Task: inverse folding
């Protein structure tokens, strides 16, 4: 075999190996990823000869809290800012910066026991970069919306005006983005309640999540009804309502309803109800009571 053929063969083997690794990582829980997962994503993202499908998937997975770091963030920013990349890839690159921004925003960079996913310098760099790009209105709408939805995960002063502008635009896609932003930026209670009345399924889901995030008491009857009528509530909306209902109220009727859903044959619904009860601190509370009185937990199995 000639040297050129051997080189091509080795190159093809490397590409197939990366593809196999990527597919494996896609179907593996992030906490079980190998130590070189970040390096795999980095290699695929920077390989312009990799398939478009692989690069989009790598961009999506690279944003996971388990692997995101300054180097990956820099690569994602490079893709996002490149007009030579597809809108789909740029959008995924933007969205993947969101969780890291949120994690860094709530971290204490001076705390030796805290380990934010990004350095403080990179965190601030991303914030400036996203704001700068968002102001460029000639960027494809899909990309610009993703930029905002990532940026809003770490609240800045300019976000409130951007939400108002998007919400008032009359554009369905921008309304959807605006309601997403309302879950992260305070001061939009009236708009969230208004959005609960929408006929658009995706906007409805985001409005329910926003109501739960801010524990809007006025949203309680609407959200509770969605969970109470779980058999007819569309699944995406039901999952959002399950996540919101325990943050709105934790009375007996609510907790019993969530507990009933833990027994659902649908694994997603069961897991969502279980997580809602856990987030409400119910299991700890009832386990503590149970140690004193076997009947204290009543409806808890």
Result:
């Amino acid at each position: 075999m000639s040297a050129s053929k051997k080189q091509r063969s080795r190159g093809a083997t490397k590409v197939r190996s990366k593809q196999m690794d990527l597919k494996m990582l896609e179907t593996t829980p992030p906490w079980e990823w190998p130590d070189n997962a970040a390096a795999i994503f980095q290699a695929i993202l920077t390989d312009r000869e990799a398939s478009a499908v692989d690069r989009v998937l790598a961009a999506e997975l690279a944003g996971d809290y388990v692997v995101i770091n300054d180097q990956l963030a820099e690569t994602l920013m490079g893709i996002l800012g490149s007009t030579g990349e597809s809108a789909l890839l740029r959008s995924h690159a933007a969205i993947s910066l969101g969780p890291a921004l949120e994690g860094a925003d709530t971290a204490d960079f001076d705390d030796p026991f805290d380990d934010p996913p990004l350095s403080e310098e990179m965190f601030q760099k991303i914030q400036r970069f996203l704001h700068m790009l968002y102001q460029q209105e000639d960027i494809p709408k899909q990309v610009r919306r993703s930029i905002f939805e990532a940026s809003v995960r770490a609240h800045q002063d300019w976000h409130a005006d951007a939400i108002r502008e998007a919400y008032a635009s009359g554009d369905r896609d921008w309304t959807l983005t605006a309601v997403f932003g309302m879950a992260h930026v305070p001061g939009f209670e009236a708009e969230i309640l208004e959005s609960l009345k929408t006929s658009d399924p995706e906007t409805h889901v985001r409005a329910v999540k926003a109501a739960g995030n801010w524990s809007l008491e006025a949203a309680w009857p609407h959200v509770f009804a969605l969970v109470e009528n779980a058999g007819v509530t569309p699944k995406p909306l039901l999952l959002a309502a399950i996540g919101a209902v325990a943050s709105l109220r934790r009375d007996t009727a609510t907790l019993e309803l969530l507990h009933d859903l833990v027994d659902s044959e649908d694994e997603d619904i069961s897991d969502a109800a279980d997580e809602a009860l856990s987030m409400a601190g119910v299991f700890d509370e009832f386990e503590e009571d149970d140690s004193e009185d076997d009947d204290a937990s009543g409806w808890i199995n």
Residues 188-301 form one domain. The longest helix spans residues 3-26. The chain has two domains: 1-156, 188-301. The two ends are 67 Å apart (CA to CA).
